[in-house]
Amino acid sequence: MTMQNGFIEQCEHEQLHLSGAIQPHGALVVSTLQGIVSHVSENILNWLGVDTELESLLDQPLPAFLQELHKSAPTLAEGERYTGQSNFGPQEFDVVISHNGEQLLFEIYPVDTHADPMPKQGEAYPVPENREALEEQCQQLLEELLALSGFDRVHYYRFMPEGDGEVTAEARQPEIGGSYLGLRFPASDIPQVARQLYLKNPWRSIPHASAEPVAIMGRKQASIPNLSWVDLRSVSPVHQEYMANMGVGSAISLPITQAGELDALISCHSAVPKQLTVSHLQAMSALSEGFNLRLRDYKARRRLKVLDGMQRQFDQAKDVLMRHGELASAWTELSHWLMDTFDVDGVILQVGDEYYQAGTALSVGGVEVVAEAARFETSSVWISDSLRIDCPNMPLSEIAGVAVVSDLPLDQHHSVNLYLCRLEHLYEVTWGGNPDKPVDYRDGSSGIAPRRSFEAWVEQRVGHGRPWSKSTRMYLLKLRALLQQAKSFAWKGNE
């Protein structure tokens, strides 16, 4: 196993939600659903200012100040949370209660009564009418979060279809130099296991990147609690080192989710440790969620426009087929329509064992290799930006990218498959550090660690076609559905 693969595998298999520890800026109490304490963080006594043994809190009812809050809180389902306030003596606490499916978890944060008041939040915005208005609202959001947090810089980190991320917008304090705008970062920087946790939480706050974690103590034979919905969850040592290498002393991340997937992250960075109150975090989350909803509505409107345009375009294709009555005579018109509509350099229609080509396309051998790769795609649409990567056995070809639609309902006697082909497209990608070197040796030891350099590194990207748009799959599935509604056509040209 290579050093790189070992690092990625380590990150992907790290059970972040079962760390068994928390960050030290708060305390944690875990109880059964009936309110009997099963776990406490080892710093809980210091926070409560009581002189007793830690073990004495276990297997006992919740402390009185948490009992009161628990009674007043609504009944929570798995993944739900509730935020309230409580007092223990003279100290006021923010308490976040969450439900992990088996237990209740109480995150306890002291309220600083001397904290500066929050800056005034921004105005409400309408749903953007176009891409330019959307980008303006995104930039305004970052400026508002910068003011609200007091952090050094805020990034909008959008995830690419292949899993990499790119900084598409940035706001910085006037005195902060250097920019990450336009830089791309490899998918391994934020492993899937971490992305899943971002889907479960409205924010992720790390006030002190290098802080030592605080262990969680449980009663005998008690399993480690699931901290998936707990913001206090300790920071992975690998991520701590990653932040140190970036010069980040504290961070806040706000997820942007679309259709149940992580679409982007808003990342706030400070060079020095900085802790915000729960109220500040809630306000920041409300701002990002407002933008998230407008982004959803913008995409929905855009999708309707695209579908409307697709309907008109594909009606043209159906008209061609209806007019000719057979695929053979329709192919010349249909192939030109396909090349124009999908912006490709060539198309192949496979009808049984026959191949019909227009433009520059795959060889028969290339089609066979691609067909084997696409055979396991359940949606009938398979897309590749780089056949060199996705089809290692690909014969030498000037075609670098392909979109495949399998089992087209165009012929009642043969299996019909469509191949849309794109030539190699040479272009540059600017990365935040060398993406092929996501790890470094630890000062002569054999251990692995995140890369230390994030300076701009330019890749001359070869072996890739022009990237397929996010709507390509939707276009192709719609094409298939519309053709399904038409009558079946026999390929009569060779009969």
Report on the structure:
α4 runs antiparallel to α7 (278-324) and α7 runs parallel beside α11. The chain is 31% helix and 26% strand. The strands form five sheets. It has a seven-stranded antiparallel sheet. It has two domains: 3-299, GAF domain (Beta-Lactamase), CATH 3.30.450; 325-426 and 464-485, PHY domain (Beta-Lactamase), CATH 3.30.450.270. The protein has helices at 3-13, 44-48, 64-72, 131-149, 192-198, 237-246, 278-324, 327-342, 364-374, 387-390, 472-485, and strands at 21-22, 27-31, 37-41, 81-88, 91-99, 104-110, 153-159, 165-172, 184-185, 204-206, 214-218, 250-258, 261-270, 346-351, 354-359, 381-384, 399-405, 416-423, 427-432, 439-441, 448-450, 456-461. The model is unreliable at 1-7 and 444-448 (pLDDT under 50). It is elongated, with a radius of gyration of 28 Å. By secondary structure, the protein is α+β, with helices and mostly antiparallel strands.
- The tally of beta strands, per DSSP, is 22
Radius of gyration: 28 Å
Task: Give the CA-based shape.
Answer: elongated
Q: Strand pairing plus helix content: what structural class?
A: alpha+beta
Adjacency order of strands in the biggest sheet: 1-11-3-2-6-5-4
Low-confidence stretches: 1-7, 444-448
Q: How would you name the CATH homologous superfamily of the largest domain?
A: GAF domain
**Main beta-sheet strand count, sense and barrel state:** 7 strands, antiparallel
Q: How much of the sequence is in beta strands?
A: 25-35%
